[in-house]
Amino acid sequence: MSPTGASRLRVRVRGVVQGVGFRPFVHQLATANGLTGWVRNDEQGVLFEVQGAAAEAMPRWMRERAPPLARVDAVEVEPVSPVEAEARFVIEASEKGGRAQVAIGPDAGVCQACIEEVCTPTARRFRYPFTTCTHCGPRHTITHSLPYDRPQTSMARFPLCAACAREYDDPSDRRFHAQPLACPACGPRLSQPLESIVATLREGGVVALKGVGGFQLVCDATNEAAVARLRSRKQRDGKPFAVMVSSLASARRLVTLTEVEDTLLTSWRRPIVLARRREALALAPSVAPGLAWLGVMLPTSPLHLLLFHEAAGRPAGVGWLEAPLDVAFVVTW
Ligand SMILES: [Zn+2]
Ligand SMILES: [Zn+2]
After folding, report:
1. Class of 194-332 in CATH
2. Nearest ligand for residue 178 CA
């Protein structure tokens, strides 16, 4: 405690703390607890100063309450002199220079809130394939250099529209300081409309998607001719393909899932999960020839999800994800 009665701490947080909503998280905690000060990203991670009665609890909260995509490796605390006449807690512009020592977060699968948004006809981002928020979407893929801020990402050439800028600046919004934030008015667009992509897939075509993490080749997993064509183009003779389905309900028609596999499949990492085959939906024989196991995955990005949404006839809301859908895609890199 200082002679004025105000305690001020400088806190350094190391780990995966950029691009995961860490500054908004610190801002929200500080504001909710009546603290003043500032937070910023720099080459070593996140640095903040807090002042007020609850300041002492902040370092502990960094580990206990960290946002879902963060990984806190170290929290370093040092007392500093209190600042007079500081009225608020602010997020400062990042410092540049020095060598980057911070870990950037991995790309994360689309979150439930964003899934709901792209399936809601009245939402601004209805059917928008590049929807993201602080808790989901690309990180590593779009970052050219650190610190992780929009000008250092491939989103730099998409200036925010007024509506997106409001979300970016609103501490109560889940897109507060979300760097890859975009919408149909200001963000990237598909070169082909969703309906023609899905029509091509239905006709047995192979589609190249430039998605998170590079190009993917996609085809209808129930169409033998399409899968065989993809196999010959990729020069992949017998190696099994993994299959993407709309939801857990759809996955359960193809494979038997244990509780652990369930959790894995729906986690933000959206892995391919190898599970025991069931075949309630008839896949093309050449997807995984002669194997008792099948690699399944759920939509990783809104673009993938919207392929299923389009194939399902653009249902409103997310109720359609509770029922199995007779659509499965081979998705390969
Ligand atoms: Zn999201
Ligand atoms: Zn916008």
Report:
1. alpha beta
2. 1
